């Protein structure tokens, strides 16, 4: 789905608006479920996580419940079906092989297991309403979870003071219709809250009460051009796992690496952010952070280089061993963008290790030691 201008769009135009009353939040989902089922659920809803509440609220629309409580059916009908979702959970087995032992492959399995646990837990909560009948199937649960991962916005956008500021207390929320805009990196847009519907949108005849969340599109566009949003700086790992697409040569690509029982380190292109990992490798080897001994630098460089080569190996998928006819061209392109980005980062990290070792060799020569 995409949004295209029918006529020229002036700069700094609010292109989409959504009343707060139509935003799907964990709290609004809980309120709707309480109103629909009353005492049947007593305090059991308190056992559900924020995502479970939103997922259950979404799925209730497919169980023919009263639109008075579950009012988002028209919006949900616009969302993609399972055959249109391209996150790794929806890859076939051959396509998953192309991910090798990458972080996305590992996280996909973890996500499947986590969603399955959440489904089973939610089912026990609603047994009092539906008895032993299985209400939520795995397919529907996965689809609703994927809608959330690919379309949710931070609840901080609903701040009436500064919707563009992030907040540690923010939770995922769904903004009907606003979520239909595709991503374009660094595209200039701004979020704006308003007490009333903005003049540019009044012709729509929307009758919901304010306040409203509005997306302001800053560049002017000619008629027939696509209107984009900006999802923020994200790497292809996040885009593929959560949204189901990737960007060629994404400058925001990162890879997460950790030493057993150690923290995860996020490394970007050109080795950006590698220093904390380098320091941890030295610390694990008993080398002080201020130690400049060339032998210790050589040893640390070799140890970290070996670790990186192992990661490169799990990203080295041999296409000849895979039935590429079973791989959808679009999926193949998305995986290619992701895997190439991961390899580029790992290769830059390997070059960093080699550079440190070359520096150690020069230092040794200066001390009269030939290596």
Automatic annotation (TrEMBL):
GO terms for cellular component: nucleus. CDD domains: SET_SpSET10-like (cd19180). One of its GO terms (molecular function) is protein-lysine N-methyltransferase activity. InterPro entries: Set10/Efm1_SET, SET_dom_sf, SETD3_SETD6_MTase. This is SET domain-containing protein.
